[in-house]
């Protein structure tokens, strides 16, 4: 079973503010589980967000 994180815990994992995390929730950029009025973010959703938001390094850049 997936571990569910509260918004402050997810914000800490992402190293962003709680406000930013709430904005991601409202914009549906991250999957959530609603239990009544409570919002929980599965750990897998955090990993997915990181994987899809990662930009590969530019290998064509020449060191000077």
General description of the model:
- The protein has 64 residues and is an alpha+beta fold.
- The protein is built from 3 helices and 3 strands, in the order βααββα.
- A 3-stranded antiparallel beta sheet has the order 1-3-2.
- A hairpin with a 2-residue loop joins strand 2 (33-35) and strand 3 (38-42).
- It is elongated, with a radius of gyration of 15 Å.
Which whole number gives the mean pLDDT? 89
Shape: elongated
Number of helices: 3
Query: What is the subunit organization of this protein?
Result: single chain
Calculate Rg over CA atoms: 15 Å
Strand content: 15-25%
Largest sheet: 3 strands, antiparallel
Percent in helix: 40-55%
Give the spatial strand order of the biggest sheet: 1-3-2
Based on DSSP secondary structure assignment, what is the total number of beta strands?
Answer: 3
The SS-based structural class is: alpha+beta
Distance between the termini: 49 Å
Poorly predicted regions: none
Order of helices and strands: EHHEEH
Keywords, separated by commas or semicolons:
64 residues; elongated; 3-stranded antiparallel β-sheet; alpha+beta
Write the layout of secondary structure elements.
Blueprint (H helix, E strand, L loop, with lengths): L3 E2 L1 H8 L3 H9 L6 E3 L2 E5 H11 L11
Antiparallel strand pairs: 1-3, 2-3
Helix pairs in contact: 1-2
Brief overview, please?
The protein is of the alpha+beta class.
